[in-house]
Structures are given as structure tokens and as C-alpha cells.
Amino acid sequence: MTTVEAWLNEMVKRLSAVSETAVLDAQVLLAHLMDKTRTWVVAHPEAEIPEELEETIGAWLKRLEAGEPLAYLLGYREFYGRRFEVTPQVLIPRPETELLVERALKWLRANPRRRRAADVGTGSGCIAVSLAAEIADLQVLATDISLPALRVARRNALKHGVDERIRWLQCDLLPSPPSRTYYYPRFDLICANLPYIPTSLLPQLEVARYEPRLALNGGEDGLALIRRLLQQVPKWIAPEGLVLLEIEASQGMAALSIAYDTFSSAQIHLYPDLAGHDRLLEILVQEE
Fold first, then answer.
1. CB contact at 8 A, 234 and 262
2. Torsion over CA of 32, 20, 2 and 83, rounded to 10 degrees?
3. Region 27-56: what's the mean pLDDT?
4. Read out DSSP for 121-143?
5. Alpha helix (H) ranges present in the chain?
6. How far apart are CA 47 and CA 231, in angstroms?
7. Which 3 state secondary structure label does DSSP give 31?
8. pTM exceeds 0.85, yes or no
């Protein structure tokens, strides 16, 4: 039998060529397959791994070497302190999206009477569920064009006990025209992490081999869906409401331009992620 330390060393060596987080990936994978915590794995390098498990570890390691995302192998991803189910029908939640959640929560806590939110293109539901879990009286409309994605998102909401405060709607961005039959006539907060990769770049990207292209393809310039959503927002946003949109790092100035063209009176800001890249477009709508 091989020890935990020996397997970790082997996994890190092989994964370093395909992952920037090879050490973490190795620890997480081994912990999952051993039904232990990552802390336990790190603390017990001398522990022996049963021979019957070694074959499984080797098979999973080959899949990771081939580029298959760890989150799809595990069936979950950690996001904002919670575990979310992920399947190949949804985009894997990224750490940079936590910036959007943080900004939304800051605004919601500063405005306790603003409790109507929309999460457009919800995917796994990580934004909608995180906001509802943190703000006990928040009501959310979560939309997605993909019915399989909505099913994953709802399972995540049920898991975290917030499903009763989230309404799920299959549609392209926001339903049009606004109607009281859809939940709310206006939203205080509209959030979205929409596809923002230019179509021409998708064939070159490893991520497009496994994650759904529907959740990646942002059209010719990567801003097609963001542009369409911003055209819808004025009909849906409440006076002095907040819009938060995640963007691709190179799209900051272009996204700002679209926002200024759409809103004649608004406070508009760009926020960087931890790497210093433009990541979040914030629009605080002013009452005309």
C-alpha cells in the first residue's frame, strides 16, 4: 500500500502541467476519495491508502490530466463559504464572482428596505442562493435560458434552505415586457454573471471543452448579452436601484461605455478583482 504523502507527491507532479492549483487539487481529490477532510489528509501523510482505492485514484487522476474540471469530477464547488452542486450543465462558480456577492450584500445591508432582487443567468444558482442565505428576508427571481441549469440551481437552493424565497423562471435574460404576473414589477437589485467570452475565442480555450458553451459564449465581442440586458434593465429596475454585472478583464472600458449610453443619470463604477483586473460593473440608478 502507498502512503498519503506518496500519492500527493505523485498527483502534484502530474497535475502541475494542467493546473495552477495542483497542490490544492491533489489534496481535495484525495480527501474526497478517502471520505476524509482536506485537513485530515494534510495532517496524516503517513496514512496508508487501501489498494482497492489506488486504482480509483489513478483513474480520476488521468481524467484531470486530460483537462476535465475537478469540480465536475467531485460534483460540487465551494463558493462564498458554501458547497454548491455542479454538473456539466452549469458553469463552475469562480472565486472572482464572490466580488459581486460581496458588493451586493454590502448594499443590501445598507438598505434594509430594498429586498427584491433578480439574478439573471443564474446557472448553478450560486449568486441567488448566497444572497438569499445571507439576507434572511430577501426575495429573488432567478432566471436562466437553460432548464437543466435551473434544476441544478433549485437543488442548491433546497440544500441551503432558501428555495421558498427564490422563484425560478426559464427565459432569455429578463422576461419582457415587465408584468406583475412575473413576481415583481420592479427590482431593487439586479445581478448577472453572463457569458462574456467572444465566440471566436472559444475554440482556443480549454474551458470550452467541458463547460457549457451556452454559459460562455458572449457573442462577437463578448458583450452581446450584457448589452441586451442593459437595454432591458430600465424597465425593470426600481428608482435608485443597483445593477451589478461581472465582466471579462479586458471589457472594462467597453462595458462602461455601454452603461453610460443606456443610463443618462446613474453612478457607474468599475471594481477590480483580487488580481487587479476589471471585474465588476456597478450601476446605481438615479431617479429621473
1. yes
2. -10
3. 92
4. T-TTSHHHHHHHHHSTT-EEEEE
5. 4-15, 22-34, 38-43, 51-65, 70-74, 98-110, 126-134, 147-159, 207-210, 224-236, 252-262
6. 58
7. helix
8. yes
